[in-house]
Known about the structure:
By secondary structure, the protein is mainly α. 56% of the residues lie in helices and 3% in strands.
Amino acid sequence: xxAVAGCAVAPPRTDDPLQHFNRKVYAFNDTVDKxxxxxxxxxxxxxxxxxVRRSVSNFFSNLRMPITxxxxxxxxxxxxxxxxxxxxxxxLTLGIGGIFDPATAMGIPDGDTDFGITLARWGVPEGxxxxxxxxxxxxxxxxxxxxxxxxxxxxxxxxxxxxKFHHGVYYIPSVLYLVSLxxxxxxxxxxxESAYDPxxxxxxxxxxxxxxxxxxxxxxxxxxxxxxxxxxxxxxxxQLLQEQHQWEKKNDDGAAKPANAKGATLPAxxxxxx
Length: 274
């Protein structure tokens, strides 16, 4: 969330040609989340305490570390691949299967990458932003990480494909992983709820997050300026920020109006062209 602070003063986007479709999918995902996914995540938080949730998160983070290692190798980054392998082995053994995280205490970096970042490092353009049903935000480039990482690099895939499970038991680890991710996101819901255009906020937040991941958290200054629109002629971030503050004062109850609601008016920074 700290990485997406720039969205508050970003100019209207003109690179979202699939916006009409994406907004419908966003509305569908939001409805499904409110009716089914979020209640499960809230229940998960109620029956667990922070140490348990942290252990579950540690376990799945370590279990998915081979995805990062494989992509580091594809990106020709042997040092990061070696660090990731060391982290995986330390947490798998000393961390009792990954429930604990002694690797962090030992100073081993916690890298995180995927096939979408691999394609980006080899020069594949980002492509159009895309909102997928039940999956959420991605791009034409990042969407390839779903089949590639899940099929070739994810240990869960090999576990389920080489063992016979009955009554859908093999879905339990994946479901628990997704529920734990959704439970972590509950603490950040206020950011989305306070946005005057939640779809645009999520879209820009996703793109900025991916950009920061591509540059290991330190994108060049000129990249940040292009991302925030500072290189565009006539762009005034102070004016857009003032418009947002005015909108927040008018809506101090914290309830954001839907971007496609009848009669809804969006500030200049998040027009429907966005």
